[in-house]
Write a structure and sequence with these properties.
Number of domains: 3
Distance between the termini: 51 Å
Helix content: 55-70%
CATH architecture of the largest domain: 2-Layer Sandwich
CATH topology of the largest domain: Beta-Lactamase
CATH class of the largest domain: Alpha Beta
Strand order of the largest sheet: 2-1-7-6-3
Shape: elongated
Radius of gyration: 55 Å
CATH superfamily of the largest domain: PAS domain
Structural class: alpha+beta
Order of helices and strands: HHEEHEEEEEHHHEHEEHEEHHEE
Number of helices: 10
Number of strands: 14
Length: about 500
Amino acid sequence: MFAGRLKTYLTINTAFFLFFGMLMIDLVIIRLDQRALVKSEISKGFILIAAFESGLQQSAIQQDDFFNIKTRSLFRNILKQSGFTSAFFSNLKNLKNYSFGECGINREKLILLTQKARLTEKKITSFYGSAWNVFWKKKRYLVISSPLIIDQNKTASVSIVLDLIKIYSQARHTQQTILIYLLINTAILTFISVRRISHVTVKPLKRLLNDAEHFRENGDLFLIHEKESNEFSRLSSSLNSMLQRISNDKKKLERSLKSLEKTNQKLKAAQKELVKAEKLASVGRLSAGIAHEIGNPLSIIIGYLELLKQQEINDNEKNDFLRRTEDEINRINTIIRQLLDFSRTSKENVKNISVHELINEISEVFDIQPLLSDITIKLCLSAEKDTLAADPDQLRQVFMNLVINAADSIASSPEKIKGKIYITTENIEQTLSGSAAPVKMLKIMFTDNGPGIPEADIENIFDPFYTTKEPGKGTGLGLYVCFMIVDKMGGNIKVKSNKQNNTTISITLPVS
């Protein structure tokens, strides 16, 4: 099918260009031929005028009136035999005008041209009217004006007119014959050219295409022209070499692919371990504060148990001590459950969650933390749509890391300041890659009034193992893990910091 389309394409284009080229040559030949014919008629006209001038000179010798009946009859015969349609004479002696034959040109124009030739004493060639040539219109009438010198005292002038329609008719008839031969030549030359080109190009390409389509992995290599040495032969040799290299490198590629698959699996496992490690690090920091919080209720419980051992207390007091003990135990249970919920390792479970509920839950966890004992967390959750399709465990880890980082930043301030952490939400519209219309997003911002991040460090804070904290106080993985989790959810995380005022980390995620 490809070879048939290519052959048709070659046939059409070859025929077109051959016909167009020969037609252009034909048009040039026609123009040159007509120009030569017109020049021939002009030369013939000058000869005719010379004959008129000679006849008038002989007539002037014999009698005074050289435009006599005999002369005019002679001029009519000469004009008729020459092919010119008409002649107009102007006699200066008696100021008379004489005309012979029928003319399609206005008489006043002939008079003006005749007088102009006599006054300038020059031969003038002019064209008037219009008529169809072969493919376009051209001037129909040729007018030759010339002075006639009879003797020193007798001067006249003449204008002769030739109708060029006969030349145009002859050219059209000739063109019809040429067009017939032109079409025949185009067909013959197209057939020969396409046959030759097909033999040289189409057939080798067809064989090359068939061999390429039927090529099998373990099949024999192919060669188009084994005996010829041309471009297609070199092309087939190059293809053979390429296929040979592909065949030789296939096993290496398969081994590389298997190795890449294993490496990819290891990287995914390492990422999960990295997230887990950072999560446990955060849990360790939380556990230090929670251990202190659990110690107080345990002391209270031990005290109530000592009181219950006493015999002199009544039943109402025993019930009151038991109720208070139960409250303290429930308090411990709540703290431990919150810690377990955060530290529990679970499979990725993407579902629709409310970000506002998650932020409120995290805020309650930090209310009992000594790390944030002098820091106030203020919530401004103004987003109308806060539902996201995400893993709540991973999103909770991101929020916890950002709050802990903000608390560390405030604690590192050289001046004693009243720490504040603002968590705000809002809905925005953003155009994502691959999306034509804007998508509604949820923007979550964590702002602290700490000393801020130096400008030189902002571009690197999301790099793994990069930290601005003192040695032993940070692993440099917290923000990297946050970036990895947010990016996996289809969002983005950015930081904006003013070294003199505060730092804002904003997370943008698509609304479910």
